[in-house]
Write a structure and sequence with these properties.
alpha+beta, 4 domains, six-stranded mixed β-sheet, Rossmann fold, 696 residues, 19 helices, ten-stranded mixed β-sheet
Length: 696
């Protein structure tokens, strides 16, 4: 049985004008091991086409091509890949070495695709290169070698998988006469060692050293003759081809591993490092913006929440009525502007609802809300234009008036930590200068500016006149009461507004004097522990009728605004990531075009579609990984600088970094990079090997 049999093979090419060109016409020929065959003919005679069919690069033909008695037509795509990997070794006229790989890597790549152990393939590659006189060129790049040296590297690569057939397409076409002779001697030595060597050439000099000459013209074999002058040399002990001692042992077929693909990808990326760096930089900038935007949103929200929590007590529940729709974004503002008061019936209702919730949902809590123990509060947002609430104070010889932005009965959860100076008001006290009874009020720190004082301490003890002209329960109340400033309250969210804090019972007595009844706009429950507080607050959050304290309402309002702001920032960051993904896709798509011949070389030595995809997707994975890590580092650095800057300017930093922001950034970077690389990888895998090898 012949090593290679070709029976009645026809090959046609479809031309652009919808006609067919007959490249091969009824080719019938066979070859055996140990032959050194030259296929000669003019350009366009069909020599290279025949070589491509024999090498499994092109399977679009009719007829039979049998290797060891098996017809290539019966091979599936993966079997053809394995056939090129194991049975065929290609040597090209233009060498087709991968320029960014070293000589050693160019040779070992044939075994890399088979996932051969690193030490084994290095040992074998070095041995072959040494026999070819290239042992001192291992670390050089192809551009550093002469033409003859490049061709010997190509021969070494073809021999790495110990193939049965060597196909050489014009192996000496670009070499000088002396180098040509060296290469031909190597080819002869390979054939003498038992390989079938087929050289496609139009050179009579090459044909003259062959054992057999097959001439093709117009797609037909016109001559097939033995070379009577051919003399087979005795086999040398130091063979060029080293056969694996375990070649006959059936092993599980291996393919390109992830680690090997990773190494190849790193080589490829380093070769185009400037382009890849700029591409990664675009992704990095998008990731930095995303992380910082998330940190700003989280930081501002946390800051507002911390302010609200600092003005509350873990054992006091505040209840306000919610009158606006839950889906109304201005609802919290409306509830602050026009707080609704509780009737006695409504107080009974809320108490019953809370007690029912405590007993049904949390039976382990032995606690009951007692209506008689409820604290009461009152607040109004006044109108500066109407002047319906203000304070008068003496500034030198002049009497000054300042509008009150918010009148607020002192919440029971206010303590010493809420005071900037002074003490908590408790209703009434004696004016030490006049001996008359005056009320006690607290004011926000804005009072110092309003009174033209240099410090808030100077405002303490000052007597002011509180004027309230407001309709309460449909009764117009006109209060004019002298009060002493006993404390300055530190509520940062109200620091730029003049807020008046007054004891509820004292305010109620003033209202009663006007013939009106003060109904509370807030209720306070003093619970037995923080757990009970949390349970009742959970109940309030499940209803559409109630909300928390004024501070909490403000905090919730700002938190919703920050959440919306954060979502908007995240969308902007997401758009930038999409742009970065498109950029990666375009660059990788261009890379496929630039590396078309390299892809053809890989396919000629047995790379599967999956291997090509793996190489390109691994590159995109590495770009995403690198971008993600760099983005994390730079975000941390920029974030640290911003924190220092904000702390020095504002006294606090509205940034809050979470570990999962960085994890999310890294994950997104990898995902978008891989997604961007899928199409270029698929395109690369689908390239036709013959057309790829012809690509300039």
């Amino acid at each position: 049985m012949k090593e290679l049999e070709i029976n009645h093979v026809y090959k046609d090419y479809n031309l652009s004008n919808k006609t067919k060109f007959n490249a091969l016409n009824d080719i019938c020929v066979s070859f055996d091991k140990g032959e050194l065959v030259s296929i000669i003919g003019e350009s366009g005679s069909g020599k290279s086409t025949l070589m491509n069919l024999i090498g499994g690069l092109d399977s679009d033909y009719s007829g039979e091509i049998k290797i060891g008695g098996i017809d290539l037509k019966t091979f599936k795509e993966k079997q053809l890949d394995d056939y090129r990997k194991k049975k065929i070794g290609f040597v090209f006229q233009s060498f087709n070495l991968i320029p960014h790989l070293s000589i050693l890597d160019n040779v070992t790549i044939a075994l890399t695709l088979s996932d051969v152990k690193e030490s084994v393939k290095l040992e074998k590659a070095k041995a072959i290169l040494k026999k070819l006189g290239l042992e001192n060129q291992l670390k050089k790049k192809p551009t550093q070698l002469s033409g003859g040296q490049k061709q010997r590297v190509a021969i070494a690569r073809a021999l790495m998988n110990d193939p049965d057939i060597i196909l050489a397409d014009e192996p000496t076409g670009s070499l000088d006469s002396q180098t040509t002779l060296q290469i031909l001697n190597i080819m002869k030595e390979i054939a003498d060692e038992g390989k079938l060597v087929i050289m496609v050439t139009h050179s009579e000099k090459v044909a003259s050293i062959s054992s057999r000459i097959v001439e093709i013209a117009d797609g037909k074999i016109v001559d097939d003759r033995q070379n009577e002058n051919y003399k087979k040399d005795n086999l040398k002990q130091d063979k060029l081809v080293t056969t694996d001692s375990n070649a006959n042992v059936k092993k599980k077929e291996k393919h390109l591993s992830f680690i090997s693909a990773l190494r190849l990808s790193l080589h490829n990326m380093w070769a185009s490092r400037t382009k890849n760096f700029l591409m990664a930089l675009g992704v990095t900038i998008s990731l930095i913006s995303m992380i910082l935007m998330l940190a700003f949103g989280s930081g501002l929200t946390s800051y507002i929440d911390s302010l609200a929590s600092s003005y509350s007590s873990p054992t006091i529940v505040t209840i306000n009525k919610k009158t606006s729709s839950a889906d109304n974004p201005m609802g919290a503002i409306m509830d602050l502007i026009s707080p609704q008061s509780f009737t006695d019936e409504e107080i009974d209702e809320v108490v019953n609802q809370i007690n029912t919730y405590l007993s049904q949902q949390h039976s382990e809590i032995d606690y009951t809300v007692n209506k008689e123990q409820l604290g009461k509060g009152y607040s109004i947002m006044t109108s500066a234009s109407a002047g319906n609430a203000n304070i008068e104070f003496q500034l030198g010889e002049d009497t000054k008036k300042s509008d009150i932005f918010y009148l607020y009965s002192t919440p029971p959860y206010y303590g010493e930590e809420q005071l900037l100076a002074g003490k908590l008001s408790k209703g009434e006290s004696l004016d030490e200068e006049t001996g008359e009874t005056v009320g006690e009020v607290m004011l926000s720190s804005k009072i110092a500016t309003e009174m033209g004082l240099e410090s808030i301490e100077e405002a303490l003890g000052k007597i002011v006149t509180v004027n309230v002209n407001y309709s309460i329960n449909d009764v117009l109340v006109n209060i004019q009461q002298k009060c002493k400033i006993t404390g300055i309250v530190n509520v940062n969210m109200f620091k730029d507004s003049l807020i008046l804090y007054i004891d509820y019972d004292y305010l109620e007595s003033l209202v009663n004097e006007q013939g009106a009844t003060l109904s509370p706009t807030a209720l306070y429950i003093n619970t037995d522990n923080e757990n009970t507080t949390n349970i009742i607050n959970n109940f309030l959050s499940t209803t559409d009728n109630y909300t928390g304290s004024v501070e909490n309402q403000m905090a919730n309002m700002f938190s919703e605004m920050m959440s919306t702001f954060s979502v908007a920032l995240a969308i902007i960051a997401g758009i930038s990531l999409i742009v970065a993904m498109i950029m990666i896709l375009v660059v990788l798509y261009m890379s496929v075009s630039e590396r078309t011949r390299e892809i053809g070389v890989l396919k000629s030595i047995g790379a599967r579609k999956h291997d090509i995809k793996k190489i390109f997707t691994t590159e995109s994975f590495l770009i995403g990984l690198f971008s993600g890590f760099v983005g994390i580092v730079f975000s941390a650095v920029v974030g640290g600088i911003l924190i220092l800057l904000f702390n020095s300017l504002l006294g606090f930093a509205p940034l809050s970094f979470r570990w999962y922001y960085f994890a999310l950034a890294l994950l997104l970077s990898v995902i978008i990079s891989i997604l961007a690389g899928l199409y270029p990888a698929s395109k690369a895998a689908k390239l036709d090997p013959v057309e790829s090898l012809r690509h300039e």
